[in-house]
Amino acid sequence: MDTHKMNTNEKKRTGRCIITGAGDFFGMPVKPQEGDYVIAADGGYENLKQCGIVPDLLVGDFDSMHIDGVKGTTGPVKDLDIYADAEKAEYIHHLTKMKHEGVETRVIDPVKNDPDMMACVRIGLEMGYSDFRIIGGTGKRMDHSIANLQILGFLAEHGCQGYMYNEKQVVTAIKNRTVRFSSSMKGYFSAMSLTDYSYGVTEKGFKYIVNDVTMNNHTPTGLSNEFVGTEAEISVKDGILLLIYDIVAEL
User: Fold this and answer.
1) What does residue 147 show for φ and ψ, rounded to 5 degrees?
2) Do 159 and 194 fall within a single domain?
3) Mean predicted confidence (pLDDT) in 209-213
4) pLDDT digit string (tens) for 4-36?
5) pLDDT interval class at 82 (50, 70, 90)
6) Which residues contact 247 (CB under 8 A, 6 or more apart)?
7) Range 221-240 burial, b when 16+ CB lie within 10 A, else e
8) Shared-domain flag, residues 65 and 158
9) Percentage of the chain lying above the pLDDT 70 cut
10) What pTM was computed for the model?
11) How far apart are CA 229 and CA 185, in angstroms?
């Protein structure tokens, strides 16, 4: 049994887990509300400070921001099996605890398999959150941006919903379900298969109609559909899709 999924079901929370990373930052498209839990992933702390927001928790190995007493580098390490704890991720229960500027802080050993963002997601899952909002998750490092897309797939696989924002668009992942959009939605809409294959993909109410097709993750056939001022929906019978669309209003 997957321990993270089990724990999420046992103590489910209704608020959102808002995680801010150290990537490109354009302000907060999602405003923290009562019941939300805000986590700063490493240098994402500085992004939150720009907005006058104090996070509930700061997590990281602190290679993108400095904290007194934390080295923040891996040092001369080689030939280490970093996948040893990749599935259970027991490390999140043994993080060094401290405070930074009065904020509860958890320090991650920089010699690890999970990026800081993934560690934050795991902590949110342990706390019982199922709605995740990632801000500052894209930027100069393409590998980190792709890793964060995989995190959205991880959340969908675990029965949760994750959204990642950049300046103008939001991306989310869905597994084996239908998502509906109101007639107020505008702009482009793209659907990409994150799994090797996504079966039974149907798009209704968009400029281009898609009916019960199979998509794969090596052909970009789902790029640049468009909202046309009517209610629209997309469904997938078997697989995980990434959905990308313009930010019209806070979700």
Assistant:
1) -60, -40
2) no
3) 96
4) 343 444 578 889 999 999 999 999 999 999 999
5) low
6) 29, 165, 168, 169, 170
7) ebeebbbeeeebebbbeebb
8) yes
9) 86
10) 0.88
11) 7
| Cβ(105)–Cβ(116) below 8 Å | no
- In this predicted structure, what is the pLDDT of residue 109? 82
Crossing angle of helices 116-127 and 3-10, rounded to 10°: 40
Q: How confident is the model at residue 49 (pLDDT cuts 50, 70, 90)?
A: very high
State pLDDT tens for residues 159-204. Answer: 999 999 999 999 999 999 999 999 999 999 999 999 999 999 999 9
| Other Cβ atoms within 10 Å of 199 Cβ, number | 15
Q: Is 251 part of any domain?
A: no
| Residue 216 covered by a domain | yes
Domain tally, the chain: 2
Which of residues 128, 150, 167 is at a domain's end? 167
Amino acid in the structure at residue 82? I
Strands 131-135 vs 161-165: parallel, antiparallel or unpaired: parallel
Q: How far is CA 126 from the centre of its chain?
A: 15
Q: Give the three-state DSSP class for 246.
A: strand
Confidence class for position 126, pLDDT limits 50, 70, 90: very high
Cα 112-117-121 angle, rounded to 5 deg: 105
> Which CATH number do you get for residue 218?
2.60.120.320
For residues 162 and 211, the answer to whether their CB atoms sit within 8 Å is no
- 7, 101: one domain: yes
Task: Map tokens 């379900």 to a residue.
Answer: 177
- 150 shares its domain with 193: no
CB 61 within 8 A of CB 92: no
Contact 36, 123 (CB under 8 A): no
